[in-house]
Amino acid sequence: MRHPPKSSIIVSLREACEDDNAVHLVMELCEGGELFDRIVARGHYSERAAAGVTKTIVEVVQLCHMHGVIHRDLKPENFLFAHKKENSPLKAIDFGLSIFFKPGERFSEIVGSPYYMAPEVLKRNYGPEIDIWSAGVILYILLCGVPPFWAETEQGVAQAILRGNIDFKREPWPNVSENAKDLVRRMLEPDPKRRLTAKQVLEHPWLQNVKKAPNVPLGDVVKSRLKQFSG
Q1: pTM, full prediction
Q2: I need a surface site. Which of 23, 162, 176, 196 has the fewest CB within 10 A?
């Protein structure tokens, strides 16, 4: 496990101790619950809210990459709210699969959660770009309630990822802004060399103007899908 430096967007490691059987880590307590649970419980959920969450997630990726760390397991369950207040910060947790990397270094070990794996992980030749792909999958789910690559089996999910067909036809996509869809496409670029970096994602117009992102509700269908998917 590689834990990045202290930050308000990453859960802090308070203490570590060891006995004959295991290493015990004492982590910061986050009482605000999981990302999707908070969204489902909210009355109003919009593109603007999704943009705010995405910005934090990509800031975590940027911080990791700046310190030579690939997270390798970005998924909604690995983001918790610090407390129950509406203005609670969102924090990244669980760096159990993270690894240090050097510029140009490639990895072949297949790790992570099936829905969020980048195609190059399945091809066993990857670098830090995989974290942007995973963040792009989370963004897609935040906007429509289901993952972009879906199947009944892990093998089916892997095949869907390698095909790379992204559906923007079903609800609520016709009502989602073109800027948001453009960012999803660029984060889910199959070629890691052409995929946006964390810095480029944060410079994208949709995230540059988070407070100007559409505040129209994405609809109950998205929240009900999120509830079903996270349940």
Answers
A1: 0.88
A2: 23
- Domain boundary assignment for the chain: 26-209
Coil, strand or helix at 217: strand
Helix/strand/coil for 25: strand
The DSSP annotation for 62-94 comes to HHHHHTTEE-----GGGEEESSSSTTPPEEE--
For residue 26 the two structure tokens come to: 């004492």
Residue 218 has pLDDT above 70, yes or no: yes
**How much is the pLDDT for 186?**
98
Residue 220 is among the residues annotated as catalytic for this protein: no
Q: Which of 73, 167, 191, 220 is catalytic?
A: 73
Q: What is the dihedral of CA 62, 65, 69, 74, to 10 degrees?
A: 40
C-alpha pair distances (Å), 48 with each of 35, 85, 147, 163: 15, 18, 19, 30
**3-state secondary structure at position 17:** strand
Q: Which CATH architecture has domain 26-209?
A: Orthogonal Bundle (1.10)
Helix (H, G, I), strand (E, B) or coil at 110: coil
Say which residue the tokens 């030749």 belong to: 125
